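User: Hi! Is it possible to get a structure for several chains at once, not just one? Here's what I have:
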Amino acid sequence: MLDGPGRQADVLLLDLNLKGQLVIDRVAELSTTGRRVVVFSQHADPDTVLAVLEAGACEFVAKDEAADHCVAAIIAAAADLPYVTPSVAGAMAADTTDGRPKLSARERTALLWWFQGMSKESVAQRMGIAETTVRQYIARARAKYATTGREAATKTALLARAIEDGLIRLDEVGDYHSFGADPRPRNS
Amino acid sequence: MPDAPVDLVARRYTRNTAIAAVVIAVGWHVGEDLPAMILGWSDYRWPAVVAAAWLTYAVVAVVAAVAILRAEQPMRHAWAYAAITLALTAVVAASAHGQLLTLPSWAWGAVGWLAVMLYWHRPVWHLVAFLAANAAVGLAVLVAAGTLDRVSIARYLMVVAGSTALQLGFAGGARALQAAADWTAAASAAQAEIHTERRAAGEVHRTRLRRFHALQQTAGHFLAGLADRSARPGDPAVQRRCAIEAARLRRLFLETDDLPDPLVDDIWACADVADRKGIVVDMAVVGDLPTVPADVRKALVEPAGELLAAARTRARITLAGLGDQVVVSVIADTDLTEVTATDTARVTVNCHREGDRLWVETRWADPSPSPSSRTIPLSSKASDPGSTRHATRSR
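Assistant: Yes, the chains can be modeled jointly so their relative placement is included. Here is the combined structure:
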């Protein structure tokens, strides 16, 4: 597939369940080489979602979210913009794993309500803030997740774009390592 | 479970060895020391002092006995009591004219049994240290009395070896018995836990099978209809049935826990009712859900259930465990403008109207989060503009 028509693709849409096996480690493999992967799966449990993000996937779209979010997620991934589906928002809001990024209470609230299925406009109304601020909270939370776990070219690209857009400051990135020190070969 | 039957058995073992220690020490003091004192009464230099020593010894024995039978912690001031008993040994020996190894000089040989009680819940080296100190006191008495002949030293060594072996043997045996009882208790507890988990997993499995069979009835027949073309995919009603069955299948896949969770089961029941009415119900669960008391569970589920019952075509249910909080929410298209919340003392209920959809959230903060559960800060207080309200109307 990657040698054929997929070679020039900007974004790969990957179903996690290939021939009856979950291919989370393949996500890491693809992301390390700089390929933007949008994972599309019925396995939307938080553990899987966080593992997929950790592996370097740009986005995760649950199967029941496909109609509302799939195209937008692919377009966002192509531009290295964070896109957070409700399933990802829920996984981040309830994350208790060690080494999780520090999210602010307001970021968590925005994530939780977005996960519950409210529109961003309603989330903004309930939080008493502008809708653009809600979008910022959610995108910032996603950008913070790009600072954790193993390194991947896709995470760096997302972070770089987030810093460029003023979503997150360089000093908030913390101890994220530069890829200059990464001995693994990259084709991107 | 601190009061599991196995723990009670282990505790009984510990208690019975403690009783044995008390019986030996008190029995020795009454059955051996008292006759020895009476027989040697006329020979003592200061008989009243010896009687006072016997009584003091008895008082220390009673204090120690009460302590080890009552508490499971090391006795307080054990070293102070030990110092007193060592002093008594010297006093009795001095009163018996410096004789250490005669019958009237009863204290030196008996004091070890008292020490067994004093150091009951402590490491055995404490007792060893005391017995060494007592042997040193004995040697000091021999030196002071100038009875360092071969016979005296041989008898001294014999008494030290004999009494120390008995006392250390008993103390070590008691500790071994306690350790064995603790191991047995731990093993039994682990076995009970496995048994409980197996039963729970069995229950979950049966529930899943029941749901699977129910789905086979509905989804299976429906798929058969599509296959034999009695149901046309272009038909909006068929598409709708498709969406409902798919949502039910997704809910079935959602369950991966091996332990039954009553809160999830209650929400499931509401979702089942809704999709039998032809509503597409999506469900998502995140975080670890703590055990919720039954009345709180009812308060959490009722508003959600009410909205689900009034949903028109689509509903999304979410359950979130956020460390010390449980948040249940439903969002659905409906004519309802708010839900009735009967129990706002236990849970916080929020509603928000969004076009033709109503969002309902019930939230419970666990007052006693378990130490293992990690708290996630979450600002639950949001400013409440005009379009939102807390549903506090009573039924």
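Residues 88 and 108 of chain A are 12 Å apart (CA to CA). Chain A has a mean pLDDT of 82.

User: Great, thank you!
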